[in-house]
Design a protein that fits this description.
The chain has ten helices and 27 strands. It has helices at residues 159-162, 181-192, 238-250, 259-266, 268-277, 294-300, 325-337, 395-407, 436-442, 446-457; strands at 12-15, 17-22, 27-34, 41-44, 46-51, 58-63, 74-87, 93-105, 108-117, 126-128, 137-140, 170-174, 196-200, 205-208, 215-218, 221-222, 228-231, 254-255, 285-286, 306-310, 319-322, 342-346, 354-361, 364-372, 387-390, 412-420, 423-430.
C-alpha cells in the first residue's frame, strides 16, 4: 500500500527573522523580526518630528540601522499617511505617525505601511506585521532568514551616500529681511523642490547652553531640528548671528556657511591675513594703530593713490580713494579721530573701476559677472549705482576664486577679483553674497545650484567598522 503525503505548501517563504531593505528611506540593509502576532509593521526611529503645511504633512526622523551602533544615523523623511493608536505586546498604547514605503525582501518588493516609534535598545530595528504580508507569504517560525542575507557593510562605505534617495528637507534661512530678493528666492526654489523652508529672524533666536541638550529657541519655543541652515547674516548683527550659527553647529546641523568663515570674512584685516596665509594674491595691504606710523603706512602700499577702508565696511560704504599723499594723510587722521579701525591698500588703477564677482558654490565657480562703477566712482558695487554684465573668467581666476572660498571654509561665497597687470587679485570674500545681480546677469538658476549642493551634503556619512563613537 502506497502512503500518500500532502505536498509542501508553495509560496514566498519568510523565517521569523529576515534581512530587508527600505530604499525609499535610504536603508539598504536591516534585520527585521517577522511577527504575525502583530497587526502593523513598525520602524524603530528617533528624533521623530512632523513638519510642513497641514495640507501636506511630513515627518522627519532618523534610524540607527545597526543595533549597538548609535554613531551611524540615517536621516529620513516621508509623507504622513495617517496617525493611529497602536497597542504593543505589553499592553502599552501610543499614538504613532504612519508612513508608506516600499520594502524589498529577496527578489520581491511591495508597498507597506510603517508606524514610527522610538523604542531604544530593541534588537530589531523593524517589525514586520501581518498586514504587510500577502496571501501567498508563508511564515516558517522555526526558520531564520529564508531569503538572501544582506550585509551591514554598505553603511561602512561611500555606497551609503549613493543609495540615499532624494528626500524632503526641512531648511531654515537665517535672515532679518524675509522679503528681499535673495531670501525670497531661497524660499521659492526650496519649496519648488518640495522642501519645507522657514525664514528665521536671527535677532529673535535665543540659545540654551547645556552640555547634554543644547538648543536654539525662537518666539517662546524650541526650534525643531533642521536638515540645513542657510545663513543670511547682515553686517549689523554679525556677532550675534554667528553665535546663533555656532549653536546650530553644536547640535550637529549642517550650515551652508560656518560661523568661523562668516566672522573672518566680515573683518577685513582678519580676511586679508587668511588670504596671505594661503598665499592668495591680493592688493598690497597695510594696517597700523599708531598715528606715528602714517607716513610709513602709506609708503608700504606704494604711496598715493591708495584706498583707505574701514575694517567692517560693506557694499562699498566706508571705502575712500585718496589720490595724493596729503589726501591720504587727511583721511587717515579723520578715521583715527573717529576711533575707527581701518586699513590702507594699493590702488589698482588698471582695474578702471571694474571688478569680477565670482559666485562659488561648493567647490566650483557657478557664475561670474563684471561690475562697473557708476560714472566717476571707483567703486563697482551694485548698491552704489554700478551695473553688471556676464563675463568669461580665465582658468587662473577660477582657481583663485575657489581657493579663496575654501580658505574661509565657505560653501557659498562671492569672491571679488581685480584684474591687475601682474594677475588677478582678491579684493574681498563675501559670505552672504547678494543673488539678484548674479542671477540676472548670468541667466542661471544660482539658488537651484545651491540646493543641489545642500542635497548632496546632507546625505549620510559612512562609519568605520568596529568602532563606536560615544
Amino acid at each position: 500500500m502506497t502512503e500518500h503525503t500532502d505536498p509542501a505548501p508553495t509560496g514566498f517563504r519568510l523565517g521569523w527573522e529576515e534581512w530587508v531593505s527600505l530604499p525609499d528611506l535610504g536603508l539598504p540593509a536591516m534585520k527585521a523580526k517577522v511577527d504575525t502576532g502583530a497587526k502593523t509593521s513598525a520602524l524603530h526611529a528617533f528624533d521623530i518630528e512632523p513638519f510642513g503645511p497641514a495640507s501636506r504633512p511630513k515627518v522627519r526622523f532618523a534610524v540607527h540601522p545597526i543595533p549597538g551602533r548609535e554613531d551611524l544615523s540615517i536621516p529620513c523623511s516621508a509623507a504622513i499617511v495617517d496617525r493611529r493608536e497602536v497597542t504593543s505586546s505589553n499592553g502599552d498604547s501610543e499614538w504613532r505617525y504612519v508612513i508608506a514605503a516600499e520594502i524589498v525582501v529577496g527578489g520581491r518588493r511591495w508597498p507597506i505601511d510603517l508606524t514610527l516609534t522610538h523604542r531604544g535598545g530593541m534588537a530589531y530595528r523593524m517589525l514586520l506585521g501581518r498586514q504587510a504580508l500577502g496571501e501567498d507569504v508563508i511564515v516558517s517560525p522555526g526558520d531564520s532568514c529564508c531569503q538572501p542575507i544582506l550585509s551591514y557593510d554598505v553603511y561602512h562605505s561611500q555606497r551609503v551616500r549613493e543609495v540615499a534617495p532624494a528626500r524632503v528637507l526641512r531648511i531654515a534661512v537665517l535672515s532679518r529681511e524675509p522679503h528681499n530678493y535673495s531670501t525670497a528666492r531661497l524660499v521659492a526654489e526650496g519649496e519648488a523642490r518640495g522642501h519645507v523652508v522657514e525664514v528665521i529672524d536671527t535677532a529673535r533666536c535665543y540659545m540654551l547652553l547645556d552640555a547634554l541638550a543644547p538648543d536654539v529657541h525662537y518666539d517662546g519655543a524650541r526650534l525643531p531640528r533642521f536638515d540645513a541652515v542657510i545663513p543670511r547674516i547682515g553686517a549689523s548683527v554679525t556677532a550675534y548671528g554667528t553665535a546663533v550659527i555656532r549653536q546650530f553647529e553644536t547640535i550637529g546641523t549642517y550650515c551652508v556657511n560656518g560661523s568661523e568663515g562668516i566672522t573672518a570674512s566680515r573683518d577685513k584685516l582678519h580676511a586679508h591675513q587668511i588670504l596671505a596665509r594661503h598665499r592668495i594674491g591680493m592688493p598690497t595691504t597695510a594696517f597700523a594703530a599708531s598715528p606715528k606710523d602714517t607716513g610709513n603706512l602709506i609708503s608700504l602700499v606704494g604711496g598715493a593713490p591708495l584706498i583707505v577702508k574701514l575694517l567692517e565696511s560693506t557694499q562699498g560704504k566706508g571705502v575712500v580713494l585718496a589720490e595724493t599723499t596729503n589726501a591720504a594723510s587727511s583721511v587717515i587722521s579723520a578715521f583715527r579721530g573717529l576711533k575707527a579701525s581701518f586699513l590702507v591698500q594699493r590702488f589698482i588703477k588698471e582695474a578702471a573701476g571694474e571688478d569680477i564677482r565670482c559666485l562659488v558654490v561648493g567647490s566650483k565657480v557657478v557664475a561670474a559677472m563684471k561690475r562697473t562703477g557708476a560714472e566717476g566712482d571707483f567703486r563697482s558695487n551694485l548698491h552704489q549705482g554700478g551695473h553688471a554684465i556676464t563675463v568669461k573668467i580665465t582658468p587662473q581666476e577660477r582657481e583663485i576664486a575657489v581657493r579663496a572660498a575654501r580658505a574661509f571654509k565657505l560653501n557659498l561665497a562671492g569672491v571679488d577679483l581685480l584684474r591687475a597687470h601682474d594677475g588677478p587679485r582678491v579684493l574681498e570674500v563675501n559670505s552672504s553674497p547678494g543673488l539678484e545681480g548674479i542671477e540676472k546677469s548670468s541667466g542661471k538658476n544660482i539658488v537651484g545650484l545651491l540646493y543641489d549642493e545642500i542635497e548632496k551634503r546632507v546625505r549620510p556619512l559612512p562609519v568605520p567598522k568596529g568602532r563606536r563613537r560615544r
